[in-house]
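In the laboratory, one determines a bound structure by crystallizing the protein with its ligand and collecting diffraction data. In a computational setting the workflow is compressed into a single prediction: the sequence and the ligand go in, and a structural description comes out. We illustrate the idea with 1-O-alpha-D-glucopyranosyl-D-fructose.
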Amino acid sequence: ATPNPWWANAVVYQIYPRSFQDTNGDGFGDLKGITSRLDYLADLGVDVLWLSPVYKSPQDDNGYDISDYQDIDPLFGTLDDMDELLAEAHKRGLKIVMDLVVNHTSDEHAWFEASKNKDDEHADWYWWRPARPGKTPGEPGAEPNEWGSYFGGSAWEYCPERGEYYLHQFSKKQPDLNWENPAVRRAVYDMMNWWLDRGIDGFRMDVITLISKRTDAAGRLPGEIDSELADLPVGEEGYSNPNPFCADGPRQDEFLAEMRREVFEGRDGFLTVGEAPGITPERNEHITNPANKELDMLFLFDHMGEGEGRSKWDLVPFRVPWLRGTLANQQAAVKDAGWASLFFCNHDQPRVVSRWGDDTTEEARVRSAKAFGLLLHMHRGTPYVYQGEELGMTNAHFKTLDQYEDLESINAFRQRVEEAKIQSAESMMASLELISRDNARTPMQWDASKYAGFTAPDAATEPWLTVNPNCASINAAGEFDDPDSVYSFYKRLIALRHENPVVSAGSWTLVDADDEHAYTFVRELDGERLLTLVNLSGRTIDVPAESAAMVDALADGIEPAVVIANYDDAAVAASLARHELAPWQAVVIRL
Ligand code: TEU
Ligand code: CA
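The predicted complex, in C-alpha cell form:
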C-alpha cells in the first residue's frame, strides 16, 4: 500500500481565536495570545493548529463574514502578528491551517459593494434575483422563493440600490458568492495561493459543499417561481431548507478538482479539510479518494444529528446505537480508499461532555470526557481536538437569553418563540442550554483566576463572552501536571496514535454491533490487534458477548494487557474479570 500521507497519523487542534487568549486586555483573544500558548500546544502533542477566521470582518458571524481575505482584523492583530505566529509555530514543528470561507463573503466586502451596480464587472459575483412576479420588491412575500436561512428568516435580502434580492444561506450580512462565475473562482484561487506562499500549511474550508447550486438551463435557482421546482417543502418556521438545492450540487467535484489543480498542484506538506453539510459517507469516499484529487478529508455531520430532517433545536436523547451506526457507516465507506476526520467538538457544537456525557459531578465529568476522547481517538482517521476539550471543559449553562451572543441562537429564539411560536421560552432556553454554539465559545480556562487567565484579572474590559465559573476547578494549570487529568489522558491518546501505526493505519472492525450502551471495536494491522470497549452510560453494564469472548480468550492465566483506560489497572482487571464495564469505563486492550 502507498505510505500514508503525513496527515493520516496527525492530530489537529482547533483554536477559536476570539476565545483562546487575550494579551491586550480588550476582552477578545488575539494572535499574540496564540503565539504565547504554543509551548502548551506543543506539549499536548498535536501536529496542526486550525484557526477559525482572523481576517478583516464586521464580526456579524464572529469572523465567518469576511470583508478582506488578505488582511487581519485589528481585533486579532496584524499581518506581522500572523507572520510571527507562523514562524514560532513552525519552529515547534506545528503546522498552521487557516479557515477558508468562500461560499459567501461579508456584505461589506468590496466585491459585494461593487456588485450592487448592474454595470460593474462584479455584477454577477453573487446570486441576484428579481422580486417574485406581480409582487412589490421589498415587500414581504416578494422574495424569489421560500428558502430559509440557517440563521432564521428568508435566505433572500432586498437591496434597494440594485432593486433586486441577493441569496444568503447564512446571515443577511453573508451574501453567497456565485461560483458559476469563473472570475469568482479565479479570485478565490489567487487569494489561496497568496496565503500558501506566505507560509500557511492548508485550509479548513467552510461549508465548501454548498458552493455549487442546482440551477435550470436559464440559470434560475430551484424553487424560483415559474420554475419546475417551485413547490418547495416549507418548514414550521415558514421557510424551506435550501440544502436540497445547494448541498453537493452538480459542479461540486469539478470545482474541487479545479481548486486542487490551480492551488495545490506542486505543493506538499499541506492539509485540506472541507466542512461538508449534506455529504453522505459514500460521497465522502469519492471526494477524499486521492485518485480524484479533490480534498484530503471532510467534516461530515450525520453523527452530530445534523440533517435529521428536524430542527437542531428539537432535542433528541442520546442513543449509542445511533452514534455507532453513523460512525460505522463513515468508517466502512473509507476502509479501502478515502479518509475520515474524527470530531465531536468544534465552535458550532456543544461540549460533548455536557451534550452526551455527564457534567453533573466531577467524577462523571472526568470519566465521560475521557470516554468520549478515547472513543474518538481510537477510530481510524484524523482526530480534531477543539480548544478546551482536552481539559474536559463543559457547556456554559447560561440561564438567560441576554447571556448569549451567537446570532444563530438569538435569531432562533426570536423566530421560534416570539414569531412562529413553535417552542415555549422555557423549552427554547433548555434547547439553547444543551446545543447553542455559545457553549463552545466561552473563554479558554487557563487557570483559576477571575477570568480564567484568558484575560488579566484587572483587564480594562470583561471578556466578550462570560467565563464559565467552573474555571475555578477546570483549568489547564490544575491539569497540566496531574497524571489523572483529562489533559494528561488526551496527551496519552495523541501519543498513542503517533507511536502505534495500528491506531492510525489499522483496519476498523465493529464488534457487538447492537449493544444499547457499550461501543466496542477492533483495530488491526499486521497481526497486531487492539480491542476498544467503551461504556457510554453512567451505569455498570455487562461486557457484550463477542467482546467478552475475546477478553476470555486472553485471560488464560494472564491479565489482559491494558493499553490505556480511564480507570486504574486494578479496577479494569476486576471489572473485566466480572465481564462488567463500570460507569463510563473506556479501555483498550491488546488481544
Ligand atoms: O458552519 C456551517 C453550518 O452549517 C453551521 O451553521 C452549523 O451547521 C450549525 O450552526 C450547527 O447546527 C460554518 C461555520 O462553522 C459556522 O461557524 C458559520 O456560522 C457558518 O458556516 C457560516 O459561515
Ligand atoms: Ca485581545
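The first strand starts at residue 12 and ends at 15. Keep in mind that any predicted model is a hypothesis to be tested, not a measurement.
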